[in-house]
């Protein structure tokens, strides 16, 4: 039976299935250098670094990142950290009955349900043109939305992370529209669903991990890409490009980073644009905190520092 | 019958009760200068500038800011703006049956109810020490809380504004705690009620208008004043000054402006501190927008610029 | 015969045709206030403030901004500045044979020729898709391009200013492409012609003077408006929206302000985008200097401060 | 006889007592990895890195940071730096007659005398309430003051550093009060003694080396901690919390970092607060320079860069 | 007998000698405008605005800024401020026995003595080359040093202000060199005397009031001007331009503003350069505070805001 | 025949002449550590890291940075990068007929020609005093100008880089003066030739590679050094130090970095100073792009990030 990585302790011998998250062939610096593999093994509970000494040329060619393996090993403490010494390792085969999705970090609820929630929200938009625009753009990325993270590092950086971010924002948006009826709830819904709609194309991700940014992502950026999609939608749906509706949706997307130095070419000038920025910020920041607390050992009083929170750590208060 | 100021039009003759918001004795620059009064008259619907030509020495001594008056006048357009020419003016007497609170801007709901809501929230705090600390500090300013605005200009700058800000934040805080159960709702409530608790002492206000900052307000600031009150409360209530509870409440108050350049000596490092900052920001920013839209004539597409929103104006969208 | 404003001296009596650039009805502060008109009269050589004492109600209704008038007056020094005292004033009639364009500030060369230069540059673009995109977008604003300034205050703020800016940039762009053959001259031309292509729609201008920004201008901004036009052009011309050509042209426009805080959502990442930013900056800054020196009296050693040059003034060196 | 580390040269064989400042058990990357110890040995004159090859398991368990050892070794040059190869190593025993305080960096004068100087300054405060407040707060940390450094890295980062910083500031403060009699010397003394009074509790230090910040240090910060102590002192001493004296002392502490981004929630608004900030800055900056010059080899023209001086190095001028 | 301006009260009739600090000929806005003079009268104790109604053409030509006058008038309150109504006014004549220096603001000690102190400090410099350089540069501006202020607004903005600033800095410098013997006191003295040595040429001042900056002041700046003078001195005195002495003195001057954005092209990298910056800052800031307190009425708790102190006001504490 | 480094492929055996760009003696971490050499070999086409295992003590003493060697080796892939394993290595001898200049990176045209172009430009300066000043300063560094780079990393960081930068700027300057005749072309030429004239003395470079900054470079900086040279030139040539010509040339040099935080003590206030800054910026930025594209393998779509371009990479567009 596989041991979860977060339960491994110094001296444990273990056998189990893991994902190779990182792999590098290195050589010892002895006078006759020998090959070994420097690995990071992962499962859904965490990750551990590992060494496979005396790797053969065949081994070096066999294993690669995101490859599922069965490993027998022993846990040691090295430089105050746990490290696995690999004794035996092989790639998994069909009969092992394991799937990569069992080993990756993902949103805390089922992605299928998240997508249904988003689609319900789209259907509930009353204004026909707004609903059509949102539908058009959502269809472009629906498939990628299953797995897409919301960001590379900062927040919701896992499988289904973007969908999860949108759904939580929709909940908060609904509350705010109820508390402040002067806000147009169709625009709030549209803004929430569309604000990061081009992220799955801006970023190249696999299993919820961002590998790189696409060329479009670097040269145009997800904010302007989404603005272009709205233009495309309007033309294809026969909506006047100069109408206030198109202007409003574009404004929501363009301004949602709030400041020029954060990537927004214009600043929020609609009530819904002001709301959208703060709904996005609150959900992202609180998720960073929640995720960081969950992935920090219970025994630690302080989390690691969080880049998106002014490089501050979070204290695990017990009162 | 009194005409509401927002309904006055060019050429109108009017009689009514108003509040003198500003008053200055000036002299014409004719070779034999003559005295006149330069006034701003206000009621709960707005304000208008006015001139009282040929004011006597007695007039100059009679009228003062925040004085209620009965005025007969005529409306003119001067430099593209409406202006009242005062024909007759006298101070109100008891028989007129008017009260200053009818003429000032105030929170959109009854302050009495707001204070009850805050007290209910205090009572609902489960943790004894937290509840005692909040009670102690709230008692210090309960009386001033009736009228105190939340700020001089930026947001909730009116009678009962601070209480209104707190109550709306409590609603939002309740939602967030429900959505994210890892947050401690006692701390969220305490943080919301206490975050600006020293503002009524930091600012010298009358009828919801800030006249100045107190010496304490300038030299200590409301954030550190509140921190001192918590220390005082702990000593008087016999709570250990070094306990995590005191540390946590102080941290919430000290960090709620988020950044040093915004006045916080430490940055948020508790989950509830992160939440508190964004709850505060969202409520303040959306209220600025809502207030500005309400005090801008319906006929205007754009509000004036809002200092607290990067000096941007808000567009009154019609879709 | 009309006296040019820049030639008026203290004590001069004059008769001539002028443009009313600003006008305000004011009242003296004598005890029986009297109406007068506070004016700014302009011709193509400059502007002068003027007073028309004892204006009648009819006068106040007759004259308005941008109205052409015949004026008889006398020049006085008031508070160390020249000021005209208006003796007689009337609106011009057809027989006077004067036209508003004689009285406004405009680019130093004929706009007609500038537009021809731009169109020649468009025709010289070799790459078919680039040329088609540029043609499509240019057609949208060709008519407005006659009069459109390049900015409200900073630079080229006059009739035909945008066209003049583009043509000078094309000259500089041609030189740079010749000096550095690794640059793609089609992209340089496209970038130059398109970089401010949406400005005539972003700004509401009359006779080369910007009166305001349009709603689109405020909520979308000329950079994103131009990006949208490129999307529209691609769809209507049947060019692949995902192609490198579309991506490159969009990138040039989006990045030409160089930094987020200057309004660009992405930073230059094509050689031609780097070049475009500096071609734009150099032309704008040097034109500010040249224009300011030309509109500053020869007798002044220092120009007024120039906002676009870190609020520095320019010294008129004589060596 | 022990060789001072700063006198060791390439090829020297040496025997002596040292402090283990850092220690890490590592393994060679040979195919059969072997344990060795990577050390930093220190005495009061400096530090040197050292390797103990072929360390046994017992060795790895025996030695730890801040442990005193007797070492026999030889000095080699490795990658252009001196390094000791350890031949024999053992922990010191009582008979060796060595004490840890002989091996740590400390203030250039006796801490005992520094504390007496501070206490003399306290006694010389004329105003009773000020003197009582300072006495109360000083008593809280008097014991820790013996060893406490003034900062982790920036300045006075050694045994007794804080006391030394205070005493030098008192000298400078006395001069300034003499030069500018409008300053209140009681407040200057109080401000100097109290400005960093909470640092020994903000930081967890051992032998003058800061190991970490305490939870209070991170969540409240030494500035607000000191403000709280003043509140506590006032209550316990029966001094009116609203009095100008309490307000003044709190203001001095709260404002002494001068700017919000440097951690002060209010900016200096008393003459003594302005003076305090500059007295603190001058002493800290000059001490950084003096310390860095003293710990840089005489043969070096330039010191390493100093973080607290805009990352600039200091030139050792010889004129 | 002349009444000091700071002693004038509402209703006072007075006769006395004053300096015309500002004067402007204006016209009333009656339909037949009449001339009057808008004045600011000053003496060494303060200033008061004044009106001279019914001024004749001769009056307008007679009086000018910095002109000494004898005035008979009466004090009135206008817009909550004291204002003098001038009844009779004439220029002073020789027999009046008054001199302009009696009416201007100046350093609190005799300038003559300040210059002697500076010259004593120069003579006390031991290093021959440093002393020669300082002497050479000081001779360039010795005459102007009598009257030159240290800045336009910020600090020491009065007759002899620069000399006073230098002398107080020399006192502080002497203390610091005594406290920290590793500092070279010759360099400290040279740096203090030379740091603003070119200011009398950078600024055009009269009677201690800066009227403008010179062309050199704007285009080169006093820091680089002083650097050039050192080069000139070295050449004329036959000192090696590449020597460490010249490099050190230039470095002190160039770096004394500490940061690039404050005008220093290099940052302090000599111990004496670090000291010089803080000696300069401390003296300038404390003098701002002292001057502002002295020119604010004793009855005021708060001074006006001080630009050089982050726009903060100073509180006049009474304990 | 020597193989160019950029043509080496995995598995290649090669013999050739190379430059040792970096060299470090290391030891393997086997229990009996062995010496080896860690090298970077370079030729004009690029660089490759190399290991020389089993180096003898003699080898370690024989080879040094910038030493030319003949190497026999084999190419391997190590950690995804090419690496050479050295089999035999010896220093070159005279008979090998190789020279260091064949192995270093240099400007793309002959330095000899660049220097002639600069001298032609100097001769073409019409104004006698400007030409003399430029000649004087240029003579100071003419010899160093052969090899001097324009910067340590940012741009033109190679043999002859500074001369190449100047010549390209002169071409651009000539165009700008032709396009905008109000610019004084003598000043433009002088500014271009002199703007970095002190860099060869500010930086210590060898074969176009900057090893360090000189003491003068650190303490005075090239901008102020050049200003001093102009002062020296004026004195030695008998030109009035206070003349507008000297002031103008100094201003051009002092202001060419545009902002204080970029090192300029004054900001551009002459038309030619504004032009000079943008000519410098455009040439530097475009050269960074061009150089980076040329040294990035053709197969790479993106260059590495460029520090001088806001840390952005450049995309190699193919259209």
UniProtKB/TrEMBL annotation, chains A, B, C, D, E, F:
Gene Ontology MF, one: hydrolase activity
This protein's UniProt keywords: Hydrolase
A family per Pfam: HD
Keyword Hydrolase: yes
Keyword Hydrolase: yes
Superkingdom of the organism of origin: Bacteria
Classification lineage: Bacteria, Bacillati, Bacillota, Bacilli, Bacillales
Domain HD/PDEase residues, every copy: 158-294
Listed Gene3D superfamilies: Hypothetical protein af1432
Name of the featured protein: HD domain-containing protein
């Amino acid at each position: 039976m596989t041991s979860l990585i977060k339960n491994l302790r110094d001296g444990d011998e273990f056998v189990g299935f893991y994902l190779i998250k990182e792999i590098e062939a290195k050589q010892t610096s002895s006078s006759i250098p020998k090959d070994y593999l420097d690995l990071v093994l992962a499962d859904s509970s965490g990750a551990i670094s590992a060494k496979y000494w005396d790797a053969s040329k065949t081994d070096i060619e066999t294993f690669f990142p995101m490859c599922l393996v069965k490993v027998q090993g022993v846990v040691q403490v090295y430089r105050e950290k746990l490290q696995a010494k690999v004794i035996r390792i092989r790639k998994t085969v069909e009969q092992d009955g394991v799937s990569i999705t069992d080993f990756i970090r993902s949103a805390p609820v089922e992605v299928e349900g998240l997508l249904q929630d988003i689609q319900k929200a789209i259907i509930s938009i009353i204004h026909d043109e707004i609903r059509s625009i949102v539908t058009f753009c959502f269809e472009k990325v629906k498939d990628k939305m299953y797995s897409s993270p919301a960001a590379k590092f900062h927040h919701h950086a896992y499988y289904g992370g973007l969908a999860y971010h949108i759904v939580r924002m929709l909940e908060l948006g609904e509350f705010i529209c109820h508390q402040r009826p002067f806000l147009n709830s169709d625009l709030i819904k549209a803004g929430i669903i569309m604000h990061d709609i081009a992220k799955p194309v801006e970023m190249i991700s696999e299993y919820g991990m961002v590998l790189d940014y696409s060329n479009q992502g670097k040269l145009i950026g997800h904010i302007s890409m989404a603005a272009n999609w709205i233009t495309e939608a309007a033309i294809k749906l026969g909506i006047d490009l100069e109408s206030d509706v198109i202007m409003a949706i574009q404004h929501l997307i363009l301004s949602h980073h709030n400041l020029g130095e954060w990537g927004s070419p214009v600043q929020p000038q609609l009530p819904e644009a002001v709301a959208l920025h703060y709904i996005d910020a609150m959900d992202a920041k609180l998720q960073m905190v929640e995720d960081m607390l969950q992935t920090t050992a219970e025994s630690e009083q302080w989390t690691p520092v969080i880049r998106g929170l002014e490089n501050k750590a979070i204290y695990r208060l017990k009162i």
